[in-house]
Amino acid sequence: MQHLSRERKPKLVAMENDNISLKAVVDKTNNRVVFVESDEKFVDILFSFLTMPLGTTVRLTRNRPPTTSIGCMNNLYNSVEILDKRYLRTEACQTMLLYPRNGTSARCKNLKLKIDDGAPLRYFLCGGSYCSSSNYKLLSHYINAICGCGELMNCKSDLKEKETTQRVFNDQDGGVFVKGPIRLTISDELQVMPSSTPASLSLFSKLGIKDTSTIEERAFSMGVLEALKLLKCLLVSKTPLTEALLEQYNPVLSLNNAEDFERVSFRKVKIEEAASNEGGETYVKLMVSKSKNIVCYAEANEKFVDLLFSFLTVPLGFIVKEMQESTSKACINHLYDSIQDLDARHCLVSKENTAMLVNPKLAPGFSYEAQPLNIEEYMHLPYYFISPDWMPVLTSDETLIPSGERTAASSVLTVMDPKSHYNDNSSGRGFLKGPAMFSITDDLIITPLSSVTGLSAVRKLKIPFSDIEEQIVYVGKEEASRLLVASFVSESALTNTFLLEESKQGS
């Protein structure tokens, strides 16, 4: 294994050192970026952020400036980190939530900068003698899943692919999402457009810049660390390029009260999808302050906490799709809308790649039955195990199976659900065992239910017991969607989801 690591290291270093050049036009008077001009490789990086699961976004940015949390997502992530593993259905569940896979990783591995530091997909077969002698039937992407025979899936295997000429990223290569070569202009609010004089003049006019005396051109080089800072800034700043490049922080509008949250509007969902799940199993008991009209804390079973934890696996672009217009997160909406604009101008690589950005899906194996968001999931690749006379081979390419081996010495493998063991009758459920009850604060700190956690939340808010009342709410598609967005843009997710009047939500 050490030898393999040494062989791959030079390629990784070459990619990291091969930074992207940016040319920025800066308003000297106000110390702000008017726009940046670069090629398709930089915009590919920006667009790839929309495919990134929120758990990955939190992991990569939580210890980077600016020191601002992404709504309640940091608390959700921390709650998974410290949760007793006995509450999780399998050993893999915590890994799936803390290191969620990107459903478009096969495309994103061709980006000029390697942003995601997650481990590559791994392949494990059963260690039992029965399965090895019968040519295997199951495959796991996570170690120590329990096979149908009862043995551990702990035999690591390499995936054989067609041999291709490996080389370091070349500047002549085309784009991942955007066709190249092309020069593109990116505003400080992340509106992307083909470079042109009218586009530049429009941005000058918008900022009240009347001549060239107050502007200057500056060159920047963007590597992985700079890209991660930009990722954090586009989530918490209204002017992410200015913040990332000039370190001039312009924070987003705080969303800790009802008036601010009303600025966010939601994608209209069909009535049959949005109907509350009254009488269903997903419900939440809210402890509400009557005088302040806020949720002090909530009590809920594992089904509701499964929904909350699953937010970490959702791609950022899916959340943007769930919002229509948001004052606080406007730069993300601009980035998302730019995809449609560039697609109309035939600047994107393909309709398939465009769909990956505007309608991102979960990675295979990350969905579960009765998930209220109803987010789609990519399908697993087909996997084949070939056992000829010379050396066994695992592949996802059927053309690599020798014609004489297609039946007698080859088998199609079933990829196991990492959230359950093969002999577990509860396959298809979420990440947590049940029955279990949890305490959830308004800013989504989640702990196993105890009387102490509830009292602690009430004490922190300095609310008398006489002011607290219990409310029961049910969670369907509409509530789940609102909760997802509230968790992303607000630090009072439960209050903003369940206590605001529907007429004020901009439905």
Observed structural traits:
19 strands, flat, 5-stranded mixed beta sheet, 19 helices, alpha+beta, 33% helix, 507 residues, disordered N terminus
Write up this protein.
The protein is built from 19 helices and 19 strands. It has a 5-stranded antiparallel sheet with strand order 10-9-2-1-11, with helices on both faces. A 5-stranded mixed sheet has the order 4-16-14-15-8, with no helix packed on it. A 5-stranded antiparallel sheet has the order 18-17-13-12-19. It is flat. Mean pLDDT is 84; it is low at 1-16, 165-169, 252-260 and 268-279. Helix 9 crosses helix 10 (240-246) and helix 15 runs antiparallel to helix 16 (351-358). The chain is an alpha+beta fold. It has helices at residues 2-17, 40-48, 54-61, 73-82, 91-98, 105-108, 129-133, 197-206, 224-236, 240-246, 258-261, 271-274, 302-310, 316-322, 330-344, 351-358, 451-461, 477-489, 493-498; strands at 20-27, 32-39, 123-125, 138-139, 145-146, 152-153, 155-157, 159-160, 183-187, 192-194, 215-222, 283-289, 294-301, 383-386, 393-395, 410-415, 437-441, 446-448, 468-474.
